[in-house]
Amino acid sequence: MRHSWGETVDIPTGYLNTASIGIPPGRVAEAMRTALERWAQGRTTVAEYDPPVAAALQGYADLIGVPVSSVTIGGSASALIGLVAAAVPDGARVLVADDEFTSVTYPFVVHRPRGVVVDSRPLAELPGAAPGYDWVAVSVTQSTDGAMIDLDGLREATERAGTRVLLDVTQTAGWMPLHLDWADAVVCAGYKWLLSPRGAAWMALRPATAAGIRPLAANWYAGADLQGSMYGLTPELHADARRFDASPAWLSHVGAGVALPWLASLDLEAVRAHAVGLANRLRAGLGLPPGDSPILSLDGFDGASRTLDEAGVSHAVRGGSIRLSCHLYSTEEDVAAALAVLTS
């Protein structure tokens, strides 16, 4: 058991894999256990899940710096991005990063039969190339290696050219302060750095962007009056972004309703300094230059994955490289455990 930012986290030494799965703080796990017990005992009601859904919505809005009225909920990042991709016009040109995570790219690629063009460029080239495209869709922090887009450069280039921007912050929100009300769409899955159960995701939409999107998965939960939206043929959906809501995975939002407001209450500059600082100690211990991301990708360590597993160092392998990631609950001991294997 370790103590982190006023919470407890029950993980062994060597957990460096938040980029795959985030670990819930004690309060999040306890909320989940209580909800599970109530369900198992037949004591739950539909209405009791509304407050955690609302709390997570507000937490997400606070984490990325947007009005809560602009945020909708879904089950995954790709499903939410799919709403945006379905709304781009025939023949639209979309720019993505080379080796971008496919939850960002595939929702656009499947529209090639109607003339949608999807091109990829190296991440660093996206701001310069953006003016030739209708949309740029990119993860702020790349899943493969932790590389980060130049947000200021991308904003300046796209605002000048009128290019729309979709940002995926699944590998960014929760450790880095964000102010993204300028982006047309900002999507995030909660089960990594937001320390929530899988099955909860959010997307913020600028009003002009939302106006051009059809609520393709319209359902009772998107109704302005939930009780009045369960039957009939005349949908009266929310006037704001909630009209795009998917019916929530209740238990997932129970956890998210605790995790996101807690993360939003923290000094995220301090969280970033902690997580990136530990990642840079890993880099320094391996003779690598410092970076600005808590995710690092290591080449030239053939066979190290098995040895790391045997030593109890949780990690991932992406593109044939070892991927390690540090979050707010990571410690010097975690870094030392990894370095003991990788420098031997």
Automatic annotation (TrEMBL):
Entry-linked SUPFAM superfamilies: PLP-dependent transferases
Domain Aminotransferase class V: 131-286
Domain of life: Bacteria
Matching InterPro entries: Aminotrans_V_dom, PyrdxlP-dep_Trfase, PyrdxlP-dep_Trfase_major, PyrdxlP-dep_Trfase_small
Pfam families with a match to the protein in the record: Aminotran_5 (PF00266)
GO molecular function, one term: transaminase activity
Keywords tagged on the record: Aminotransferase, Transferase
Cited PANTHER family: CYSTEINE DESULFURASE, PYRIDOXAL PHOSPHATE (PLP)-DEPENDENT ASPARTATE AMINOTRANSFERASE SUPERFAMILY
Protein's recorded name: Aminotransferase class V-fold PLP-dependent enzyme
Organism per entry: Brevibacterium pityocampae
